[in-house]
Design goal:
Elements (H helix, E strand, L loop, with lengths): L6 H4 L9 E4 L5 E5 L2 E7 L11 E5 L2 E5 L1 H7 L8 H15 L13 H4 L8 E7 L3 E6 L8 E5 L2 E2 L8 E2 L6 E6 L5 E6 L16 E2 L10 E7 L12 E7 L7 E5 L1
Antiparallel strand pairs: 1-2, 2-3, 3-4, 4-5, 6-7, 7-14, 8-11, 8-13, 9-10, 11-12, 14-15, 15-16
Helix pairs in contact: 2-3
Bound molecules: zinc ion.
The site of zinc ion has 7 residues, from loops.
Length: about 250
């Protein structure tokens, strides 16, 4: 028994992630969002054992994906229809790590996707037992040096982290020194296991020791096992380093 009859219905869950279904210039069907498109179409020359392989075109890059093989590798038995397999494979890959297809999702849908909001900008350097991970912030241009802007309160960093919440709220943005792209690295109204919806305040630039304002940023997350790598982390620590700072400085404990 198959549940899905065609490409459109098999991938209609993408609508929840801000995609729309449309045709491209060659009248082929695809799902598209502002960052690019996901297009699947038959490539009959790869037709073997009665199961066609798919050519996947994403943002003008073409990759062949063997849906049948990918489906079996999920540990499932081949008992459903082909489009059901398409649905399972694409959905699993997006839930697991959308980097596989380089299929970018609009940030406003992150909460529905259930993965760490900034995972695409983290170069993971350490993972511990599915409960902790540590990564270095990296801009899409490859640069890892940033200015930091925040809405919290800056302290002297002696008894607490350098930035603490201001009226129960802090948002922290990192701005790439190379290309100016801004990455929201922490938002207490959205991130973590207990986000608190509050008013947002004005951004101030983080400057340490009077003139240090560019930083390499390391972020650490602690999790409950079942929520690992989602946006539902228990704690988050943000450390910065700079050539002019003698050691790491913890700027946020969230
Ligand atoms: Zn950049």
């Amino acid at each position: 028994m198959s549940k899905y009859k065609d490409f459109e219905t098999a991938l209609s869950f993408l609508l929840d992630y801000g995609f729309e279904y449309c045709s491209d210039i060659n009248n082929r069907k695809c799902y598209k969002n502002e960052y690019g498109e996901l297009m699947l179409y038959w490539k009959m020359i790869d037709y073997d054992y009665g199961v066609p392989k798919l050519l996947i075109k994403i943002n003008y890059n073409e990759n062949i994906i063997d849906i049948d093989k990918e489906y079996l590798s999920l540990g499932k038995k081949r008992t459903i229809g082909f489009y059901d397999m398409v649905h399972e494979v694409i959905k699993t890959q997006i839930n697991k790590n959308n980097k596989i297809f380089d299929l970018r999702i609009n940030p406003q849908y992150y909460d529905q996707i259930n993965y760490l909001r900034i995972i695409n900008n983290l170069e993971i350097i350490e993972e511990i037992d599915n409960v902790a991970l540590k990564g270095i912030l990296k801009c899409n241009c490859g640069c890892n040096e940033f200015y930091i802007y925040h809405t919290g309160k800056q302290t002297k960093g002696i008894l607490s982290s350098d930035i603490v919440k201001y009226k129960k709220q802090v948002v922290m943005n990192a701005q790439c020194v190379n290309c100016n792209e801004t990455i929201k690295i922490y938002d207490s109204t959205f991130d973590g296991i207990k986000p608190i919806d509050t008013k947002k305040y004005e951004f101030k630039k983080l400057v340490l020791k009077k003139d240090i304002d560019t930083f390499k940023i390391t972020i650490m997350y602690n999790y409950y096992k079942e929520d690992y790598k989602t946006n539902k982390f228990v704690e988050c620590f943000i450390d910065v380093e700079s050539e002019k700072l003698k050691k790491f400085k913890r700027i946020l404990e969230g």
